[in-house]
Design a protein that fits this description.
mainly beta; four-stranded parallel beta sheet; 24 strands
């Protein structure tokens, strides 16, 4: 049985040690770069992309992440060191209550404890005539190695725990948006990109450690979550408005990302400090709009280096903070 195969005690303990995403508490908004406008996210993802697991859902396109892997790279399918926090733990497997196919080479099993296990190879897609679990039945989602993409799960009301494999290189648009109970996400080394609204509006997320293979965060990837802290890997190369409207308290901007885009920290009212590398060349308009608690900037370079940064309008909170030079 598939659930028994992956959810034995040893696997459970191993997974709890690897990677996390933690807990949230806010309503969420759609934030666009132009003019740092704030909009409602009630229809984010839109159309088929916004469907849940039981309603068809979106088909995510897997994109290779070769060359970005660190310890336990995706190329050899192994998992590197990751941390996890939060009160939710994967329970012992229960009795199988539902099983079937969820793609040409994908199968699923749902047990009596609400553990949904997705196994096989390739992309997940609905098959005509198959019966699938209701969103409300899914409490724990475990995606096994070999699966490249999954559909839906947006607004799943009972989903509390997610484990994603190294073969799932991309977490798609609105993949888990507005999963209000979601408090733990384990991502294996190999996951490279989190697209727009991937976890936006998840009302139980408070902290996140990303695998060292993650290199791109889309708009509102963690927008309007309860994140108070985040650790960004040095492999990061692009960050959009991923953390807008969150209670982040501090952040260390990674080297290799030279632009902080408009609305990147829009309404991050708890943001107290930020560390910036010398790589930063441009801070766009309204990037720090509404960061009323920002007091300290720790900058890797000199005062002369700092003056070379192009800083757009409506960044008064940033400009009024104290800059500590040669610190990062």
């Amino acid at each position: 049985m598939l659930v028994s195969h992956i959810m034995d005690k040893e696997r459970k303990n191993a997974m709890i040690k690897k990677g996390f995403i933690g807990i949230c508490r806010r309503s969420w908004f759609r934030i666009f770069l132009a003019g740092a406008m704030l909009f409602s996210l009630s229809g984010c993802g839109g159309g088929e992309d916004g469907a849940g697991a039981s309603g068809g859902g979106m088909q995510q396109e897997s994109q290779p992440g070769q060359g970005m892997a660190g310890n336990g790279s995706a190329e050899d399918g192994s998992k590197g060191d990751m941390g996890i926090s939060g009160p939710v733990e994967l329970p012992e497997p229960g009795e199988t209550v539902m099983s079937g196919r969820w793609g040409e080479d994908i199968t699923y099993t749902l047990d009596s404890n609400g553990i949904l296990t997705i196994s096989g190879t390739g992309k997940m897609s609905k098959i005509e005539g198959e019966v699938y679990p209701e969103d409300s039945q899914i409490v724990y989602l475990v995606v096994e190695e070999g699966v490249e993409s999954i559909t839906g799960f947006r607004e799943s009301p009972s989903l509390r725990y997610v484990s994603l494999p190294s073969t799932m290189r991309v977490v798609g648009d609105s993949q888990f948006s507005s999963c209000k109970a979601l408090s733990v996400v384990i991502m294996a080394e190999g996951v490279g990109e989190l697209k727009n609204d991937a976890f936006s509006g998840c009302s139980s997320l408070t902290s996140v450690v990303l695998p060292s293979t993650v290199y791109r965060l889309g708009m509102r990837a963690f927008g309007s979550t309860g994140l108070t802290e985040v650790v960004l890997p040095e492999t990061m190369r692009y960050i959009d408005t991923a953390f807008a409207n969150t209670p982040l308290e501090t952040i260390k901007w990674p080297r290799g990302v030279d632009t902080i885009y408009s609305a990147s920290f829009y309404l991050c009212e708890e943001l107290d400090s930020i560390s910036l590398p010398k790589d930063v060349a441009s801070i766009r308009e309204s990037a720090f709009w509404g960061c009323s608690s920002l007091k300290d900037i720790y900058y890797e370079g000199t005062e002369e280096d700092f003056k070379k940064i192009e800083i757009g309008d409506r960044n008064d909170d940033f400009l009024n903070a104290t800059v500590h030079y040669n610190e990062y």
